[in-house]
Amino acid sequence: MTVQEELVPVGKIIGTHGIKGLLKVYSYSGNIQSLQSAATVYLKDKNGGLCEHVIKSVAAHAGGFILGLDDFADINQVVPLNGSELYLKLSQLPAPDEDEYYWRDLIGLAVVTDQGLELGTLVDIFETGSSDIYVVRGETKEYLIPAIADVITLVDVPGKKMIITPLDGLLDL
Q: How far apart are CA 87 and CA 121, in angstroms?
């Protein structure tokens, strides 16, 4: 397996912080523990170039993170990194708990109701205050499915399938 195949996107650099080469990071998961426990992070620039960097510091800040990298100590060095995506090796991430999944494992699953109605493919996920929302795109319609235990009946990642039990009116929206 190549390094590229083992990498998981975890965030994006959205700016600089101060003058000492720190970076503002928008986190895709909001989980600071993954970055705090990692020794290195990969940055992918706008041209697709990938480079590994040693993590110096990670701190929560205003709904995101402030990231310090060993290679950078000055704002002028990090300005070109704005817009770069952050990746961790899959092996650096903690194993999900039972009934928890990485978003990357859910995107692309076929979504079917418990009555056998094929809704489409899970194409996106977004966070809300209480639970994630799965965006399922069918041939003619898009569905917003709440990721709650009352709705999600089965997630079969190896079988690339999700079965849901829709709440009354959910599919009518």
A: 25
Tallying the residues shown for the chain, one arrives at 173
What does the alpha-carbon distance between residue 71 and residue 29 come to, in Å, rounded to a whole number? 25
Structure pTM?
0.68
Q: What are phi and psi of 12, to 5 degrees?
A: -140, 140
Closest CA to 148 of 168, 134, 161, 136: 134
pLDDT digits (tens, 9 = 90+) for 12-48: 999 999 999 999 999 887 677 888 889 999 999 888 8
Q: Which structural domains are found in the chain, ordered by start?
A: 3-92 (2.40.30.60), 103-164 (2.30.30.240)
Q: Identify the DSSP state of 117.
A: -
**What is the per-residue DSSP string for 123-134?**
EEEEE-SSSEEE
Q: How confident is the model at residue 95 (pLDDT cuts 50, 70, 90)?
A: confident
Report how far residue 22's alpha carbon sits from residue 95's, in angstroms, rounded to the nearest whole number: 29
Residue 12 and residue 135: Cα distance in Å, rounded? 22
Residue of 47, 50, 49, 42 whose CA lies nearest to 10: 42
